[in-house]
């Protein structure tokens, strides 16, 4: 049941063999929500069906959406995977064993695990939609993982986290030795603002900052990226986001009131 609320999101997958393989390993590990963002291949192709084998139902139920925000609709938590050892984002790269259990809580919440394109992964802009980043350690001799292989590793870790209570004492001891404590990286609370709410705030903030001249068109992307990173580290609650949105609305009201007063004064001056 803990895995029922976790979406596996593939951004612009190009290989039907990969999509089919992902559907299969998802079903192997008890995951069923597959979301394809602007797919570049046919999920119903013979290649995809061949690799899915008995997971055709996962393929058929897959949600197709045009953008990543659409895929994250309703989610409260999101982890993105990256194949780059270093990013410009102010988020630590965590191994799957320590990070992915955060998607599964005692009181399940809608969550997503994001994977990028086969050839270049997720862009920095796309990584910014996640609150945490996962990097799968590999041999320096060959660091590039196939998409389906990366999904398989992560799905296994999710399955392991969900079923850990059922492990034998020996297995649990072995498993716990591989886990890097990450309590300091994220709160245990499940009362997090949804990613939809966060996105609405970012759009509101960007519009206001452009209006007051804090942002300029050529600086929007870099400045907003920093704001996203800041809030992703803060894990705000719905109440806190409502507070921030209220501040933005009040600033907009003050601007309108100031402009109205200025017009009234100009009109009175013209009437004299």
Short descriptors:
272 residues, alpha/beta, Alpha/beta knot, Helicase, Ruva Protein, domain 3, 2 domains, 7 strands, 48% helix, 11% strand
Q: What would the principal axes of the Cα set say about the shape? A: elongated
Gyration radius from CA atoms, angstroms: 22 Å
Biggest sheet architecture:
7 strands, parallel
Give the domain tally: 2
Helical proportion? 40-55%
Total number of beta strands: 7
The level-1 CATH class of the largest domain: Alpha Beta
Q: Output the helix-strand order.
A: EHEHHEHEEHEHEHHHHH
> From the helix content, strand content and strand pairing, which structural class follows?
alpha/beta
- Distance, first to last CA: 74 Å
- CATH T-level topology of the largest domain: Alpha/beta knot
- Number of H/I helices: 11
Strand order in space, largest sheet: 3-2-1-6-4-7-5
Mean pLDDT: 87
CATH-derived architecture of the largest domain: 3-Layer(aba) Sandwich
CATH superfamily of the largest domain: SPOUT methyltransferase, trefoil knot domain
Beta-strand percentage range: 5-15%
Low-confidence stretches: 165-170, 172-185
EC number: 2.1.1.200
GO cellular component, one term: cytosol
Enzyme class: transferase
Keywords: Cytoplasm, Methyltransferase, S-adenosyl-L-methionine, Transferase, tRNA processing
């Amino acid at each position: 049941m803990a895995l029922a609320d976790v979406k596996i999101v593939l951004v612009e997958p190009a290989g039907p063999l990969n999509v089919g393989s992902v559907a299969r390993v998802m079903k192997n590990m008890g995951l069923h929500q597959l979301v394809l963002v602007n797919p570049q291949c046919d999920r119903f192709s013979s290649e995809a069906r061949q690799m899915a084998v008995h997971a055709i139902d996962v393929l058929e139920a897959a949600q197709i959406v045009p953008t990543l925000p659409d895929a994250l609709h309703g989610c409260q938590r999101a982890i993105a995977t990256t194949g780059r050892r270093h990013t410009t984002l102010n988020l630590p790269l965590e191994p799957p064993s320590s990070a992915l259990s955060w998607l599964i809580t005692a009181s399940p919440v809608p969550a997503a695990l994001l994977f990028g394109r086969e050839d270049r992964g997720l862009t920095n802009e796309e990584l910014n939609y996640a609150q945490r980043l996962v990097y799968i350690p590999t041999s320096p001799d060959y660091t590039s993982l196939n998409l389906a292989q990366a999904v398989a590793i992560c799905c296994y870790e999710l399955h392991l986290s969900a079923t850990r209570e059922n492990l034998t004492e020996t297995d649990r001891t072995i498993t716990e030795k591989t886990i890097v404590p990450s309590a300091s990286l994220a709160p245990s609370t499940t009362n997090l603002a949804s990613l939809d709410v966060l996105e609405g705030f970012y759009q509101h903030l960007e519009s206001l900052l452009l209006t007051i001249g804090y942002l300029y068109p050529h600086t929007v992307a870099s400045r907003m990226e920093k704001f996203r990173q800041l809030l992703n580290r803060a894990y705000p609650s719905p109440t806190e986001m409502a507070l921030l949105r209220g501040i933005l609305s009040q600033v907009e009201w003050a601007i309108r009131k100031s402009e109205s007063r200025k017009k009234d004064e100009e009109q009175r001056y013209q009437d004299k």
